[in-house]
Every structure is written in structure tokens, then in C-alpha cells.
Write a structure and sequence with these properties.
heterotrimer, A mainly alpha (326), B alpha/beta (254), C mainly alpha (297), A: 326 residues, mainly alpha, 13 helices, 0% strand, globular, C: 297 residues, ABC transporter involved in vitamin B12 uptake, BtuC, 2 strands
Chain lengths: 326, 254, 297
């Protein structure tokens, strides 16, 4: 258990929690407000990440512009999902979003000339031997570090800077989205969960608003995708498998699907459980070696998901009355 | 509002054929007829849920047939629902406020217009309170709409539709399944709104007595066509109407 | 021409696997309103039980088919008792059930990995023998799959159309309120549904295991999405639709590799073809091929 005290590890956990916070926030907006069952959200993360990486490496686009392109790609993905949402009932929409997500992953795996295929971003065709996209970010981190060091005497490593960056953005987004969820626009979306007839009879263009929600949620996923790409310096298709979307769902359920503040709570709890199980030395964890512990971790995730659905669908911070799981 | 020569068929069955209706502004018009007469289809066409094959729907000269329901609503056509659909997860107050049609906060860009939103909210709040008072639901304004009784839901439906300041209000079988007390209350409410605020009403209804007493003009439909248009008194004396409701040759002693 | 025949044969094989899987899933949705995301793992586990019986216990191949079906049935019934029943009591909605199914899928798959390890398995059958047919090569295992598949479909249709319980299941699926009011015993219908769909999952597992040659713990999951595509294509809850949807998708997937189509789409893209087909159909018929136009959100 001594390993638990290594700060670097927990910074890493917090970074992941930050990425998931932004990602899950997008999902919270889509489901908690608009009731959309998007189970393919991770594809937007991947679309954004791959677009950014490919723009930078293959087309030599300026780094910031590449990031912007990534977000635009995610937004376009959201537009597509909006078109689907207009025509499909809830459960069909859920299934189609998963199909969409896996289609993205298949394309990433097979279009190796663009995406590097299974080998990931390292194999993207570029001028250098192995393709890399993090140089601008690393430079930025280095300059921030030196400045902070000269101002305060503290040395911040790459992870620490990333931690501050991610959570700064996350907190800003949380505040903005929380405000957005208090507007009449959000209220109309909540009303639309019970059917389109009423809001439409009151002059609300529900189809457009759903598309707006999906685009916003997708852009949030896109932001998370870019941070993900920067943190790990390398992306590959299996980073964006449905399991990530399921984790995000669990996070919003844990925290309470209707409340923005539930998202970071859920993400932190999830992050700590997920990481913490690495260190538990007591039975039943001690019965398994570390390879098997990976399986056990996911079994625990599955069990928690079921437990939430069975016993506390409103999550930790939700109110019973607003018990929303349909 | 006028419906001009509307026709619509579904899968080979002619639901409405050549129906024309002219709703008099500031008056209560009723649309009645036996089951299967096509009233519901015509109503759905007027509210934008169904697209007619032939014909036009005009509101003050503006053509609305085939447009989306929300566009029609924005053109000033309000409606209530037969089942009194309320948004159960929102409070009564929130339900009524939902009705405010020109709310800048409704649009996403309204997020960036906090002053406009505040301004609008202040004006709407007053109106919402008045309407709740009008229908007698003020005490329940913070209650979840899902907890209301059927009758209270009808009143909420009404208040919410009125919130939008519609040029014409279409009522979808407002008296369906309603007890006499409530029926009286609703009738008084409709009459009051019409006389005091010159609201135009079009009622689609089955319940003949209630409708006869309050309407200024009645249309009767049967088998997809309008078979009578005139004052309420004349309705029961019209042979076509009697035939439609009771079957042909009724009243003959053979 | 021989390429076309080959692809048609492959398409029928794939189609049969998808059809049976889709029928099981559609059936469960029709009666229980559950989109069983864990069904892929029901398939995998049944196949693993069968292959272990076959390889480790030496039980001849034809006997393990009913064993797989039995495994599917037992797994389905146990999970119904442990999870779906309590959720039904709480009147859990579509989303709750969907999320719970995801949880179950995680537990089942990781549990399987924990106990049997990763690593591929094969049935003890002749994987190499093939026959010439109209210029194409039909593998012996493909013939097995077709035989099993056709028998399974016939049995399914007999049960669903010819027996009382089948009629009750269909009645319940079409209109649950009316059905329960007319005295149909829900419990009986539920158990029958799990038994039939469990058996279908088991048989699907064997068929896919045969057709692939060797398979791993993610076999069912990889199948699940094309199966769901078939279910939605055929309109969820409609068993005949599921069968048709499965066959159609199987054929489309295999035929997409036909060289006539600009050299043919590479085989690894087959699942994408399945999804694209689904997307295109839904664009024109959002209720699926056989559904009624209900515009619910």
C-alpha cells in the first residue's frame, strides 16, 4: 500500500478524472437535460483527436488551428447525430450511436494510410520516422514551467501543468454549462423528454434544439479528446472503444444525471475507485495477479453500474423525485 | 383562420375531402360531427401535425398548410390537448412559463443575452400569475404537474396555451371526460376570455349541449365533408346533420 | 460468376448466424422491453461451454449443440431471476435496463476472461474439408452451419406460430396491456421467452464458432452489433423481421466484397457495411423495414 503515497500517480489519476469530467459533462448535457441516449459519445472524442493529430502531422497545419479543426470535426459529428435523433426513437437512436461509434473505430483501424491503423498515431505518414504532434504542447508546458519556477521557485513537471490546464478548463466549462442548464432553452429540452407535441405547440423548434445539444455535447467530447491526445502523446483506435462511453455514463449516474456538479464528483469517485483497486492488498483483491486484476476492475465497474440502476438511480447527488432513468 | 378546400386521405381512405372552414375572429366557433367524420384529421392539419394533399390553411392571409407545428404555433395558433398533456416532471409554474412564446431564452443564442432574458421574464411572470389566477391554480403553482388531477391538468393546459397570447386558440375536445362542475368552469372561462379579451376560439368537440350553448357558429362534418355551417340553433333541425348522427331515414315511421 | 456463388454461400452462412441471434434479441425486447446488451456474452459463454465440453470432456460435436443451447437457457434464466426480475418489479425503464445489461455484459465477459483466460478455442470438427459447388468452395463447417441454422429457424417458427405459448408470447409482445388483461400468465411467457432466446443464443454461438473456425472471448460482442443492426432493420420486437434482417445483412455484408463493386470492399470493413446499410434504411424508414410508423421520441 506504500505505492499509494506516490504523488505522481495520483496526479495522473486526477488528470484522467479531468478528461473524463469534460467528456462526461457533454453526456450530462445530452442525457440529463435532453434525455438523449447517446452511447457513442467516445467517437466524438476520437474524431476530434484524430482530426487534430492528422491535420498537424499530415497537413502541417498550425497546432492551434489543428485543435480547432478537431473541435469542428466533433461538432459535425454532433450534427450527424442530430439528424439521427430527429428521425429515430430512443432505443433505436441508442443502438445507432453505438454503431456510429464502432464505425469510427473501424475506420480508424483500417484507413491506415490516414490514421496509422492499429499502430496508432505513430504510424501516420509524415516527414519524420515516427509521427508526433505534441511538440507545440510540450514547448508550451516548458515555457509555463520556467515562468512559474522563476516566479515561485516551484518546479512543475509536465503532468502537473497538464493537471492545472485540464482542471482550469473543466471548471470553466462546468460553470458555463451549469448556467446554460438554467436557461429556458434547457427547460424546453427537459420538457421535450415527455414528447415533442407540447413544446412544438408552444412554438419551440425541438428538432433544432436537440441538434444544438448534440453539437454542444460533442464539442465537449472533442475538447476532452484533444486533452487526451496531448496527455498521452499518442493515440490509437482502441483508445476510443465503447467502454469509455460506458464509463462516462457511469460517471453521470454516480454523480446524479440531472446535476452538473455531479459530473466532477462522479469522475473523481470513478477515477479513484478505478485506480485505487490497483493497490488493494487485501482479499479478495490479493487473490489475483495484476493481469487478472484488470478483469476484476471491470467486473467491479459492471457491478457498480447494476447497483446504481437497482438501488440508487438518482446517483449520489440527485433527488429521488427527479428520478429520471426512463 | 380559414381552411380552404382541404383534402387528405390515408392509405386509400379519404379522411377529409373538400372541407372549408372560416373561423370568425373574436368569436367561438365549433367543429362537431360523429366519429370518423374527419374532425380530428382536419384539426391535425390546422395545427401542422398532418400535411394536406389539397387545400390551404390561412391565418390572416398567411399560408400555413404543411408547415411544422412549431412554425404554426409561432404564427399565433395555439392549441390544447385532448389528454391535457402536461409536462409531469416540471412544476405547474414551469409549465405555464413554458408557454411564453417570444422568450429570447428559448433560443440558444439567448444564453448570451441575459438582459433581454431578465426583461422578458419580468413581464412574463406577471402574465403567468394572472393566468394561473384565472384558472384557479395559483395555490398549486409549485406542485409537480404530474401530481395534478385530470381536471387540474386541463386547466393548466389552458393557462399554458393562453400564455402564448395566441391569435386563435384551437381546443381539442376540451370537454372530453370532464365532470359537470369542471365543464361549467371551462365554459365560463372560454366565454370570459372571448368576451373580455376577444380571443378567437375553434373547438373540436363531441359533447353537443355544451358546445351549442357557447358557440357563435357551428360547422358539422360527416364522412370527411362539411355538411352544415351556420348558427347553433339550426344544427339539430338540419336534416343532413340528423342523418349523419343517427343514420339515414331516422325519424321516418315505417 | 463463381465469386458470386461463393459470396452468396458466405452470405447465407453469415445471415443465418445473424438471423438467429437477432430473433433471440428481438424476442426478448418484444416481451420484456429489454435491449439485452449482454446477449453477446450469452453467446460467447454458451460457445465456450460447448467447446470445453467438446475438447476437454471429449463429448462429440453434435452433442454439444444442445449443451450450448442449454447453457444459454440456464444463463438466461439465472440472470432473469437475479437481475431482470427485480428490475421489472421496480418498473425500470428502457434506459435502466440498457445500463444494467451493459453492467452484466462487463461482468460476464471479464468473468469469462478471468476463468478461462484469453486465447482462442476451436471445436473438434473437420475445418479443412471443402466441396466444389458451382465453381465455389463450400466448407464442411459451412454446411454444418446451414443445416443447424435452418433446423433452428424451422423449430423457432414452429414454436412461435404453432404452439400456445408461442401465440401467447406474440400476443404479449404486440400489446402487453391487452394480453395481461385477457389472462395470459406473464410469468409463463417470460420464462418461455428466456428459454427460447437462451437456446437461440447458444446455437448462434456454436454456429459462429464453427463458421469462424476459431474464436475468443470477444466473439459474441463482435457479433452483437451486426445482430443489433439486423434487429433494428427488421424492426425491434418483430421476430420475422429479425430473421429477414439478419439474412439481408449477412448477404449485404458478404456481397459488398464482390469485385464487381469497384474491386470489392475489403473484408475488414464488413461490419461498417452492416452499419451503413442500417443507417441508409433508417433514413427512409425510421421504424425499420417492418415497423409501424409511431413517432415516439
Amino acid at each position: 500500500m506504500a505505492d499509494l503515497l506516490v504523488p505522481g500517480f495520483w496526479i495522473f489519476v486526477l488528470i484522467n478524472a479531468g478528461i473524463y469530467t469534460i467528456f462526461a459533462l457533454g453526456l450530462q448535457l445530452q442525457y440529463g437535460v435532453a434525455g438523449l441516449m447517446n452511447f457513442g459519445a467516445v467517437a466524438l472524442m476520437g474524431l476530434s483527436a484524430y482530426t487534430m493529430v492528422i491535420s498537424f502531422i499530415t497537413w502541417n497545419v498550425n497546432f492551434l488551428v489543428a485543435c480547432l479543426l478537431g473541435l469542428i470535426a466533433a461538432a459535425l459529428g454532433g450534427v450527424f447525430l442530430g439528424l439521427m435523433a430527429r428521425r429515430l426513437r430512443g432505443d433505436y437512436f441508442a443502438i445507432v450511436t453505438i454503431a456510429f461509434s464502432e464505425t469510427f473505430r473501424y475506420v480508424a483501424r483500417n484507413a491506415s494510410n490516414f490514421t496509422g491503423g492499429d499502430q496508432g498515431s505513430l504510424a501516420i505518414p509524415s516527414d519524420s520516422v515516427t509521427a508526433s504532434y505534441v511538440a507545440p504542447w510540450n514547448d508550451f508546458v516548458a515555457s509555463i514551467s520556467t515562468q512559474i519556477e522563476s516566479l515561485t521557485g516551484f518546479t512543475l513537471d509536465r503532468d502537473s501543468v497538464m493537471l492545472i490546464a485540464i482542471w482550469s478548463v473543466a471548471i470553466i466549462l462546468l460553470i458555463v454549462i451549469a448556467r446554460l442548464e438554467k436557461t429556458p432553452w434547457a427547460q424546453v429540452l427537459r420538457a421535450s423528454r415527455e414528447g415533442d407535441l407540447v413544446p412544438q405547440s408552444l412554438g419551440k423548434n425541438v428538432g433544432l434544439m436537440r441538434t444544438q445539444v448534440l453539437v454542444l455535447g460533442s464539442v465537449l467530447g472533442g475538447i476532452a479528446g484533444i486533452f487526451f491526445a496531448l496527455q498521452f502523446s499518442f493515440i490509437q483506435p482502441n483508445n476510443f472503444e465503447p467502454l469509455a462511453t460506458f464509463f462516462a455514463w457511469m460517471i453521470i449516474l454516480l454523480g446524479g444525471a440531472t446535476r452538473v456538479v455531479g459530473v466532477p464528483v462522479g469522475a473523481l469517485i470513478f477515477g479513484f475507485i478505478f485506480a485505487g483497486t490497483r493497490f488493494f492488498d487485501f482479499p479478495p483483491f490479493s487473490w489475483f495477479d495484476s493481469a487478472d486484476k484488470a478483469y476484476l476492475r471491470l467486473i467491479i465497474v459492471g457491478a457498480i453500474l447494476i447497483a446504481i440502476v437497482l438501488w440508487r438511480p438518482q446517483g449520489i447527488l440527485g433527488r429521488r423525485k427527479e428520478m429520471i432513468l426512463e | 383562420m380559414q381552411a380552404v378546400d382541404i383534402s387528405k386521405s390515408f392509405g386509400g381512405v379519404q379522411a377529409v375531402s373538400g372541407a372549408s372552414i372560416d373561423v370568425i375572429p373574436g368569436r367561438i366557433t365549433a367543429l362537431i360531427g360523429p366519429n370518423g367524420a374527419g374532425k380530428t384529421t382536419l384539426f391535425n392539419i390546422l395545427t401542422g401535425m398532418v400535411i394536406p394533399e389539397v387545400g390551404q390553411v390561412l391565418v390572416e392571409g398567411e399560408q400555413l398548410q404543411g408547415k411544422s407545428p412549431h412554425v404554426i404555433a409561432r404564427a399565433g395558433v395555439g392549441r390544447t390537448f385532448q389528454g391535457a398533456h402536461v409536462v409531469t416532471r416540471l412544476s405547474v409554474w414551469d409549465n405555464v412559463m413554458l408557454g411564453a412564446i417570444e422568450n429570447p431564452g428559448d433560443k440558444l443564442r439567448g444564453f448570451f443575452q441575459p438582459r433581454a432574458r431578465k426583461h422578458f421574464d419580468a413581464r412574463s411572470k406577471g402574465r403567468a400569475l394572472e393566468l394561473l389566477d384565472e384558472v384557479g391554480l395559483t395555490k398549486l403553482k409549485d406542485e409537480y404537474a404530474g401530481n395534478l388531477s385530470g381536471g387540474q391538468r386541463k386547466l393548466l393546459d389552458f393557462a399554458r396555451a393562453m400564455m402564448a397570447k395566441p391569435r386563435i386558440l384551437l381546443l381539442d375536445e376540451p370537454f372530453a371526460g370532464v365532470n359537470p362542475t369542471l365543464r361549467l368552469g371551462l365554459t365560463r372561462l372560454i366565454e370570459k376570455l372571448q368576451s373580455q379579451q376577444a380571443v378567437t376560439f375553434l373547438l373540436v368537440e363531441h359533447d353537443l349541449p355544451a358546445v351549442m350553448k357557447m358557440s357563435h357558429h357551428v360547422y358539422v362534418m360527416a364522412e370527411g365533408s362539411v355538411i352544415y355551417s351556420g348558427s347553433p340553433d339550426g344544427v339539430l333541425r338540419d336534416q343532413h346533420v340528423v342523418d349523419a348522427y343517427l343514420g339515414p331515414r331516422s325519424g321516418d315511421n315505417r | 460468376m463463381s465469386e458470386l456463388v461463393q459470396l452468396l454461400i458466405n452470405g447465407i452462412v453469415t445471415g443465418l448466424v445473424l438471423a438467429l441471434g437477432a430473433a433471440g434479441i428481438s424476442m426478448v425486447f418484444g416481451v420484456l422491453r429489454l435491449v439485452n446488451f449482454a446477449a453477446g456474452d450469452y453467446i460467447t459463454i454458451s460457445a465456450f461451454v460447448a467447446v470445453i465440453a467438446n475438447i476437454n470432456f471429449g463429448i462429440p460435436f453434435w452433442l454439444v449443440i444442445p449443451i450450448a443451447a442449454l447453457a444459454g437457457i440456464v444463463l438466461s434464466l439465472i440472470l432473469d431471476f437475479l437481475l431482470w426480475r427485480p428490475l421489472r418489479k421496480k418498473k425500470a425503464g428502457t434506459l435502466s435496463l440498457f445500463l444494467a445489461a451493459i453492467g452484466v455484459a462487463l461482468i460476464l465477459r471479464q468473468g469469462l476472461l478471468l476463468f478461462t483466460g484469453s486465447g482462442s478455442r476451436s471445436f473438434d470438427v473437420d475445418l479443412l474439408t471443402a466441396y466444389d459447388f458451382l465453381g465455389a468452395r463450400v466448407a464442411l463447417v459451412q454446411i454444418y452451419v446451414v443445416v443447424i441454422g435452418v433446423l433452428a429457424i424451422i423449430s423457432l417458427l414452429v414454436v412461435m406460430l404453432g404452439t400456445t405459448i408461442g401465440r401467447r408470447m406474440r400476443a404479449y409482445s404486440d400489446n402487453s396491456v391487452l394480453a395481461s388483461v385477457s389472462g395470459i400468465n406473464l410469468n409463463q411467457v417470460v420464462i418461455a421467452t428466456w428459454i427460447i432466446s437462451g437456446a437461440l443464443m447458444g446455437v448462434t454461438g456454436v454456429m459462429q464458432g464453427l463458421s469462424q473456425g476459431s474464436f475468443e472471448s470477444n466473439m459474441g460482442w463482435a457479433l452483437l452489433l451486426p445482430i443489433f443492426a439486423a434487429v433494428v432493420l427488421g424492426s425491434i420486437g418483430n421476430i420475422r423481421g429479425a430473421l429477414v434482417g439478419g439474412l439481408v445483412l449477412g448477404l449485404v455484408m458478404e456481397l459488398s466484397t464482390w469485385s464487381v463493386f469497384f474491386g470489392g470492399i475489403p473484408g475488414t470493413w464488413k461490419p461498417v457495411v452492416a452499419f451503413m446499410t442500417l443507417a441508409v434504411v433508417l433514413l427512409f424508414r425510421p421504424q425499420g423495414l417492418f415497423g409501424t410508423q409511431t413517432r415516439s421520441v
